[in-house]
Amino acid sequence: AALRELRTQYEALAARNLQAAEDWYRARCARLHERAARSQEAVRASRREAGECRRQLQARLVEMESLRGAHQSLERQLQELEERHNAEAAGLQDTIGQLQDDLRNTKNEMARHLREYQDLLNVKMALDIEIAAYRKLLEGEETLFNMGSIGLPSLNSLPSPTYSFQPRSFSSST
Q1: CB 154 within 8 A of CB 120
Q2: What are phi and psi of 17, to 5 degrees?
Q3: How far is Cα 39 from Cα 51, in angstroms, rounded to an integer?
Q4: Rounded CA gap, 110 and 105, in Å?
Q5: 160 conformational bin, left if phi > 0, alpha if psi -120 to 50, beta if neither
Q6: What region holds the IF rod domain (predicted)?
């Protein structure tokens, strides 16, 4: 009977321990399941966030490639504009050089024409002086002729010569 009672107590204690262990196991499992559920939800949220980050990254990469292409296009346009500008500047420099040469040639030609004009003016002045001298000589001879022809009535019927000088302007042609 004592053994039976001990056995009963032992079995009751074993049943209580088993019950306590099962309760502890169930509580522990429930907490682990709860933690696992929270962890799974966190993993899902992390996966959603990672997927969103991947989509944003892809969108940024596409945008970056688009901007890189636009940048390269703008760089090419800038380079073409610089080349065109340099070509135009070189053309304008050539034109300026040609115009300066033309101006220098025109100045030289003007100086030559001025020297020719000065030479012709000097010749004209010398001719004017010579013509004036001849006029004086002719007038002197005319007076002598008129004085000496008082006795010659037939010569008086001739009209008396008069000389007039009208200067001519010279123009040079090149």
Answers
A1: no
A2: -65, -40
A3: 18
A4: 8
A5: beta
A6: 1-145
Give the residue carrying structure tokens 């962890």.
39
pLDDT at 153: 46
Give the position of tokens 């499992």: 29
Confidence at 148, pLDDT banded by 50, 70, 90: confident
Cβ(128)–Cβ(167) under 8 Å? yes
pLDDT at 150: 54
Tens of pLDDT along 70-88? 999 999 999 999 999 999 9
Q: Do residues 155 and 149 lie in contact, with contact meaning Cβ atoms separated by under 8 Å?
A: yes
Tell me what pLDDT residue 63 has: 95
- Closest Cα partner for 171 from 129, 132, 121, 127? 121
Q: Cα separations (Å) of 66 from 34, 63, 77, 78, 99? A: 47, 5, 16, 18, 48
- The structure's pTM equals 0.43
pLDDT of residue 7: 85
Amino acid identity at 152: L
Query: Which residue type does 44 have?
Result: R
**113, 174 Cβ separation under 8 angstroms:** yes
Longest dimension (CA), the chain: 216
Instruction: State the Cα–Cα distance between residues 7 and 95, nearest whole angstrom.
Output: 125
